[in-house]
Amino acid sequence: MDKLIEELKVEIIEALNLEDMEPEDIDINEPLFGDGLGLDSIDALELIVLLEKNYGIKVEDPKKGKEIFASVKTMAEYITAHQK
Amino acid sequence: MNKKTYIIGDSMISSLGFGSKENMKSLYDGNSGVQRIDDKYLYPEPFMGARLDDKQLNRCFSSLLMMSKLPEDFEFTRFEKMAIMSMAGVYRDQTFPTDKNTLFILSTTKGNIDLLQEDLMEKWGKERSMLYKAADVIAQFWGFENKARVLSNACISGVEALHIASKFIKQGVYENVIIVGADMLTEFVVSGFMSFQSLSSNVCKPFDESRDGLNLGEAAGCIFLSSNEQYLKRNKTILEISGGGSSNDANHISGPSRTGDGQFFAIQSAMKEAELTSKDIDHISAHGTATPFNDEMESKALNLAGLQEKPVNSLKAYFGHTLGAAGIIESIVAIHNLVDQKILKSLGFEKNGVPMPLIIQQKTEEYSMNNILKTASGFGGCNAAVIISKTEKA
Amino acid sequence: MQEIKHVYIAKSCLFVNGQLVLKGENSIFVKYLKEVYKHTDIKYSKYFKMDPLSKLGFLAAEVLLKDMKCSESPERNGIILENKVSTYLVDVKHQVTINDKENYFPSPANFVYTLPNVMTGEICIRHGFKGENAVFVNEAFDAEFVCQYIKSMYEADKVDMLIGGFVDADEDEYEAFMFFTEKDNVSELDAKMIEDLYLKSKSQAEE
Question: Boundaries of CATH 3.40.47.10 in chain B?
């Protein structure tokens, strides 16, 4: 799980062009949207692409994104639970 | 110096037909051009969209080549053919000038974007994929003396082109402006909107409670504007662009404003210029893409402008969203609605699903009108509005 | 007569009113832009998400608007830019993601930048401009047309402040030219003068 979390941080920074951030800047329990990393709706869609491209997980209902992308930790948990 | 911007002529090609007349008949009959498209060149999976009849396009276009000022063996792209086709419809009714007093504006978001596909790029080359080059080819077909201008301001391009053109004409900068709005349904655009998850899997439902996204479409439309009354000989009803404006939400690059103030500023600017108040506006042809946030924003903007009691429709369920063409073809429909004194039902609408009260037109019927407000909104937070009015010669 | 404030960025050089302000150590476009970003001394995390064209336009506007006073009515501030290749760099990037049917992953964060007016949108968001905004695509900067538009918007009483310019980012070249106009100085605005300001900065950058 820890390895996955570290991987995810790097992937998120790359996919969302968070150039001013380093992996250690992201708290794994911090909310990705709203106050935390300040991500927006396009970022959410980009994370959906990331899940499909890198982990083969298809999120059909974008509304579900809210729970999945609550934090890096919830994202990692979702991947672990859904990866084939 | 304040001249009038008369609407001299118009023509359009869309999924509903070739020529304004054919399109209007189809609209009054309540037809939709949106259908299931299963074509791997457009998207790996089937989707709902509105497409032009390619066979008819090629057949009709070959009969236009005799009008071309370019060498006989000059080859045109599909996009250029669409644009030229719509202009020919205007030219047949009323020859438009191409001299120094005439400006040609192309309104498009992506032009020849299909040329980025590997096989097409090999044939046509990078420069031809550029918007200025497509405009240049179209201008050369007709022999315009002035340089062609391309307005590429997302989905408001068409409405904004009418607004800017009417400022130029009113102030005497140009006597005539020929505007063409055109965009194609391409894999480039379909895949992009798919990634946004903003396409509906049904015919879209603007302003409806169950609306769940838009349909993409393709079309080309041309409007000939002039301050010169001589061109008005064939017009039984005289119309003008009486006001216009553009604005920005300054809020988000892809999400519409949550307050509607941006769209309201554009409407206010158009009404002020036309010296009209909300009481004088008889009908609103809205942007109405049928995405949840867009339609919500429009309901707020129209309420801010005091237009909540005027009948509103969206034409997106008829044509799909035709991007850079939308503002032009939807204005052409408004022009004909004013001439015919008929209002169109907002196709796809059943139950009100926007937070602020609006009267959504539910029946195509005779309706007495003098002024129609046409609005548009787009990515980049932009908004535009124009007012099309019945008028008399100056 | 006071000179119209103008900014020019190209070939790793930043000019303000014709004076060289920042000569880049990097000749690579995006790296030079990062130097300009640092020079502006702002913290704006959304900047990093922008495509190269928007970054260039955004920075030019940042430098241009420093210490300048815009109208207090947001809907009276506007911007008109010309551009040559539209969003070619981002368009190609998007096309690459759909060329291979087995590996088909169009990126929404990239696709949103495939419209040149998203650049003006970014500038409007940053500075709170809610007025007239337009992007025209043209083969080269055309001072006459841009000034025609600007004068026309003032004459129609649509704006109190309007930025004009040309911003373009292609494979091997990039260029941004932006100038500031306001109601009080528009009578002095002259296409020939703007053209001269543009050409002067351009030739200096080429030296």
Answer: 6-234, 243-390
